[in-house]
Amino acid sequence: MKAVVFTAPGEPVEVTDVDLDPPGPGEVKVKIAAAGVCHSDLHVRRGEWPVPVPLVMGHEGAGVITQVGPGVTGLAEGDHVVLSWVAPCGQCRYCRAGREARCQVAATVVAAGGVLSDGTSRLSLRGRRISHYLGVSSFAEYAVVPASGAIKVRDDAPLDVIALVGCAVATGVGAVMNTAAVEPGSVVAVIGCGGVGLSAVQGARLAGAARIVAIDVRTEKTALALALGATDEIDASAADPVIAVQDLLPGGVDYAFDAIGLISTTEQAIRMLAPGGAAVIVGLPPAGAKASFEPLLLAEADQRILGSNYGSVRPAVDIPALVDRFMGGDLRLHELISARAPLESAAAALDELEAGHALRTLLIP
Asked: 269: helix, coil or strand?
């Protein structure tokens, strides 16, 4: 099959022929209909996250099951699925408690890198085993994934749109609805209006927030945020976002979502909080990055800092529900798509994302 292969930081990604083994026990093979280009893919290309190379890139996508491995129940050939890069084991203490985003087996796959849940790879290049990315590798014509990472959804939902639900939308909406559990009437700020940030804006709207402040250095992105439910916008290129928030909302916000993951934006999220507020770290920084805050001020104001991994979602429950919200008109996804392009345009799509021009480019094998 054709796949996008990453070999080393600074080296161009390339589309080449890769061999894919059939699914093993508890796995399925998926024909990829669309794969989203995410900021996490940039971290890999820049060398900011350690990954075993060569690897087939991509972790957001949707498609149709073409083969089912031994022991798989509840899925069949022809099922439409959204891929989840957290494939819950269902047995660890977090899964049993309904906290699948913290699954110990999935965390081991992410930490070890390059393999599926059984610790091996289904991918090879010219006879040499190569790596999966986050147990998915969706920048390809096909993917073999754990069955718990292939989330069955309704057949009438367009696969080339709902691919976004597998990462950007689940992460952004989930951070609001699950991690923070934003209450109706809350005052919310979202720093960064890319695919994840705009999903967080929509999550805040769905949660019934009274004020939703969209913050970005690009006014076209904050304008889109207004169309998707934000009530106010701040141009971060023209003013200090913290001062601008305090001018707009004296006392600060109840929830501040950092959807970028820079040290500066994380620190801004903490500093713009009202008493009792929570800063939610959604965007991911380079490995080893450290932010600072004043613990005394945080304690005196009864504030919190929350990390949000994958929107704290339960994939099998939340992903179909998000697809239903999209199909029912409550959640808007078309506006998050910047372009559709073939696999051969993966390098250009990453460049566009790095330059800040793109929201989500969908690669269509």
From this structure: helix
- CB neighbour list of residue 269: distance below 8 Å, 6 or more residues apart: 189, 191, 256, 257, 258, 279, 280, 281
Q: Is the pLDDT of residue 16 over 90?
A: yes
Q: Give the list of residues 6+ apart from residue 350 with CB closer than 8 angstroms, or none.
A: 13, 37, 41, 42, 45
In a domain, 292, yes or no: yes
Q: Taking Cα atoms as reference points, which of 232, 100, 122, 246 lies closest to residue 178?
A: 100
Catalytic site includes residue 199:
no
Catalytic residue among 38, 89, 95, 193: 38
Q: Are residues 149 and 179 in the same domain?
A: no
Whether residues 158 and 180 fall in one domain:
no
**pLDDT tens-digit map of 187-229:** 999 999 999 999 999 999 999 999 999 999 999 999 999 999 9
125 band by pLDDT with thresholds 50, 70 and 90: very high
Q: What pLDDT, on the 0 to 100 scale, is given for residue 39? A: 87
Q: Which one of the listed residues 59, 89, 117, 131 is annotated catalytic?
A: 59
Mean pLDDT of the chain: 96
Domain holding 92, by residue range, is 2-166+332-363
Claim to verify: residue 213 and residue 267 sit in the same structural domain: yes
Q: Are residues 47 and 25 in the same domain?
A: yes
Tell whether 155 and 199 lie within a shared domain. Answer: no
Map tokens 């689940």 to a residue: 170
167 is an active site residue: yes
Rounded mean pLDDT of 340-360? Answer: 92
Tell me, yes or no, whether 319 lies in a domain.
Answer: no
Of 174, 24, 7, the C-alpha closest to 84 is: 174
- Asked if 112 and 85 sit in the same domain, the reply is yes
Whole-structure pTM over 0.85, yes or no? yes
Is residue 92 domain-shared with residue 145, that is, in the same domain? yes
Active site residue 80: no
Same domain, 36 and 147: yes
> What residue ranges in 100-226 does DSSP mark as E strands?
123-125, 128-129, 142-146, 150-152, 187-191, 211-216
Of the residues 131, 167, 199, 338, which is catalytic?
Answer: 167
